[in-house]
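queue> pop job 88
queue> type: inverse folding (structure -> sequence)
queue> payload:
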């Protein structure tokens, strides 16, 4: 027993020398099946204990970690067995196992230290992986008799084997996780508490009240009517965005009394109509009756998630709502009899709306090409990239929709290059008839904005 303990202590000391890249030889290790079993047991115990300590005071055991850890173990020893066959030395399996697991305690300690909240970084896990691979390469270099080509081959084989578990189970799954609070355990608790039937039956009254506040068009003035549509309830950015846009247009583009928002969000459901395809169709029909369809312009801004099959997501769980397709949106506008249309869509793959909506009297602007994603979604965001560029950066300081959209596309492209993102390639289709219409509207809006005391504009 004393000899077993001395060998175990000697292996841990040699493992530390491996970890520190100190001089180390095969003769420094004690190879036996007993030592391998002890070292593997120590590795598992350290993983369990360290995971437990990190989630105190209320840890819960994670059964899912067992298959992850077991598969890692099996893949490692299978790779060691194959490397032993490659070296034509079965004893190499024992050598690799003892040396790697002698290094294991120090690898675990380093991994848990780097997981500390104060050390959170995107590049630290990559550096740890490089470090572990370097130590593993050193082990294989010693076992192979310092043959570089054998070391390289064995290292590739071992790296591939250790990639199997993440492929099936994702990143490392800890043995313990912190007990979740009620809110964390059920992020949809507030949605589950909703009375879906009451919510749906309240919609006609809420929508009627909002539509009743819309005013008819003014004689001898080309009015802009605005409809904002925030379709995705569980991410705040969409509701924040349409709230900002409506306020901006009311102040700078004289849409006060001609603007309405449809919003899916917990905080607005009691006083703002939901963003549903039914409410959107009814709203457009009402606006079609209030506006001078031969003179006035409708601006529709839809912001939500988009799918690869070009559907705008409409979500307010647990309600079962219909997504909006390009064809459905065009049918709504046609049925409302609205001629002059400016349609702006902030969503992934929104370029798929262009072909269905474009026409001589229509401007269509989308946040992304037909096969591209856009950026900026999430609860923490104030704007999508597209919404920020168009409304906060451009229309907040000028009166031309066309120029604002063109410059926004350039700005987004530059931002994506800076942040090393795949280009979203925003789309802009301007009908031949609406282009001069909007240029004249630009002049009218510039005069309007020059008359606002709070605004300072050039050429006023």
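queue> result:
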């Amino acid at each position: 027993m004393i000899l077993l303990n001395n060998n175990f202590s000697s292996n841990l000391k040699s493992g530390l020398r491996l970890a520190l890249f100190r001089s180390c030889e095969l003769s420094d290790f004690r190879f036996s099946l007993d030592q391998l079993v002890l070292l593997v047991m120590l590795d598992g115990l350290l993983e369990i204990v360290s995971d437990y300590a990190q989630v105190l005071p209320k840890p819960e055991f994670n059964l899912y970690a067992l298959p992850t850890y077991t598969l890692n173990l099996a893949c490692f020893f299978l790779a060691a067995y194959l490397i032993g066959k490659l070296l034509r030395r079965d004893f190499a399996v024992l050598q690799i196992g003892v040396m790697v697991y002698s290094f294991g305690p120090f690898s675990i300690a380093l991994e848990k230290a780097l997981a500390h909240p104060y050390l959170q970084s995107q590049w630290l896990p990559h550096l740890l992986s490089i470090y572990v691979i370097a130590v593993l390469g050193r082990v294989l270099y010693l076992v192979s008799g310092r043959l570089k080509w054998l070391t390289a081959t064995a290292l590739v084989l071992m790296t591939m084997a250790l990639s199997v578990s993440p492929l099936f189970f994702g990143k490392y799954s800890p043995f313990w996780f912190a007990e979740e609070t009620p809110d964390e355990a059920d992020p949809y608790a507030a949605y589950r508490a909703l009375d879906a039937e009451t919510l749906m039956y309240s919609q006609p009254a809420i929508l009627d009240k909002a539509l009743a506040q819309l005013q008819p068009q003014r004689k001898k003035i080309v009015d802009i009517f605005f409809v904002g549509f925030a379709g995705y309830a569980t991410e705040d950015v969409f509701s924040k965005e349409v709230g900002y846009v409506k306020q901006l247009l009311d102040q700078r583009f004289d849409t006060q009394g001609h603007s309405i928002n449809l919003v899916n969000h917990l905080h607005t459901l009691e006083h703002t109509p939901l963003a549903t395809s039914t409410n959107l169709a009814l709203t457009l029909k009402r606006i079609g009756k209030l506006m001078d369809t031969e003179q006035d312009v409708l601006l529709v801004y839809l912001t939500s998630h988009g799918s690869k099959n070009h559907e705008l997501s409409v979500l307010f769980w647990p309600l079962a709502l219909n997504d909006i397709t390009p064809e459905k949106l065009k049918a709504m506008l046609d049925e409302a009899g609205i001629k002059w249309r400016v349609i702006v869509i902030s969503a992934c793959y929104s370029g798929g709306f262009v072909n269905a909506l474009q026409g001589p009297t229509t401007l269509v602007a989308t946040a992304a090409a037909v096969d591209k994603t856009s950026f900026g979604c999430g609860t923490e965001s104030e704007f999508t990239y597209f919404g920020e560029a168009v409304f906060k950066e451009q229309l907040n300081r000028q009166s031309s929709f066309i120029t604002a959209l063109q410059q926004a596309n350039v700005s987004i492209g530059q931002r994506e290059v800076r942040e090393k993102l795949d280009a979203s390639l925003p789309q802009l289709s301007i009908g031949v008839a609406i282009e001069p219409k909007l240029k004249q509207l630009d002049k009218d809006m510039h005069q309007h904005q020059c008359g606002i005391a709070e605004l300072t504009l050039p050429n006023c």
